[in-house]
Design brief:
mainly alpha, about 60 residues
């Protein structure tokens, strides 16, 4: 009976996304997509700042 309980618990633990190569690659892809989205937001903010600075420089000329 103890062995059956152990096998059941082990099989439940093995069903998580982290336990399969496909699950791990999906998790990695999700993390990479979050980083890409963050970098896109940063890029947009930098471009906006450059545009503001450029406009101020043109106004000074």
């Amino acid at each position: 009976m103890k062995q059956l309980t152990f096998i059941i618990l082990l099989s439940i633990a093995a069903c998580k996304r982290e336990s399969s190569p496909d699950g791990r690659s999906q998790i990695r892809d999700e993390q990479l997509q979050k980083e890409i989205d963050y970098l896109k937001d940063q890029n947009a903010a930098i471009l906006d700042s450059i545009r503001v600075i450029n406009n101020k420089l043109q106004d000074l000329q």
